[in-house]
Amino acid sequence: MTFLIVALACVTLGLGLWVRGHNLQHHAQKANSYRRRYIQLIAHIELAVIKLNSLANLVPHVTHAKTLDDYESCLRLMESLLSALNRLPNFGFDVQHLGEASPMVQRLEDKIEETYKRFKSNIEERPFLSHFLKNWQQETTPPATGCYFCSRPFMRAYFKKTTIKVDGISVKVYGCHICLAELKSRRKIKVLYFIENGQPVHWSLVDGYRPIEQYWDLNRRRPSYQTQEAEWLQEPGRGDETGKD
Ligand SMILES: [Zn+2]
After folding, report:
1. What element of type H or E holds 183?
2. Residue 142 Cα, ligand 1 centroid: separation in angstroms?
3. Which terminus of the chain has fewer CB atoms gathered within 10 Å of its CB, N or C?
């Protein structure tokens, strides 16, 4: 009888632990998914902020009132987006909470693009101002789409340009702070490749792979990490951090 009670208690305890483990795993997956989408949102907003700041430099040279109204709408959209972002928790479980902000980001990106086109055609009427358009292109095009090693989408605040030596060849690359810290401490690092026609291909050479959209869904593409020995030739902080050559 005692044996039966002990056995029953063990089964109940085991079942309880399994259910709890299952719940925790489920929660961890949801938290992970939320965080990935949240960071993705921030990456898009960061780029929109850079573009808006850059458009601000063109404002004094725009003469069409309607075009300036468009710019003001962009600012208003950005303001609403930032207040929506303020209401979102940095960490969470329910990706639907991000649902309000995501379409706003898309609307803002479209509006900025449309406004830039109007600015451009207005400025193009006076060719001596064309250098402003060139500056806009330089300032708003990220120098890399993602970290050379892991492909994390480029964000100015977290990336550094650095020189590494791989197989005796020096290469200038942009790396995220996580990979660069790893490279510094271990002198070797995992680099993201994808298998294409049976051969590993560095992520930057794979057609259709856009880190800002797909980095957080890597598992869908069968990543194949290759560990590379690499020597870091430049200390962080001494390199060019502005993203310009
Ligand atoms: Zn990285």
Report:
1. helix 177-186
2. 16
3. N
